Amino acid sequence: MEVFEEYLTRIDNLEHRARLEEILGWITKTFPNLTPKIAWNQPMFTDHGTFIIGFSVAKHHLAVAPERAGIIRFSDEIVQSGYDHTKELVRIRWDRPVDYSLLEKMIKYNIMDKTDCTTFWRA
User: Fold this and answer.
1) Contacts of residue 12, Cβ cutoff 8 Å, sequence gap at least 6
2) Residue 44 gets which letter from DSSP?
3) So which domain of life are we looking at (predicted)?
């Protein structure tokens, strides 16, 4: 979590900071083989040098980016969880609970789907 400390301290809203810190901590504990890093000024996790999932903070929501393939694969579940999404990200409103089961599925999917990926992003 040291990797994320500076990023987290720049989030002025303490509730938003605590929520993101909780999520990043959960991922670190649940997926200890993933590498935490800051890139493009955003916290993210990688596996063997390839992107797995990233986050960004907005005024009304936390954006979760599992890449387009993750959005397509879990589109129905994203909507069932009460979240909206674009082609590239899921929006979790700050006043909504985090669906950790869905987050876990998206991360596991990307780890499995990108096992042989040799680039940062999918081609």
Assistant:
1) none
2) E
3) Bacteria
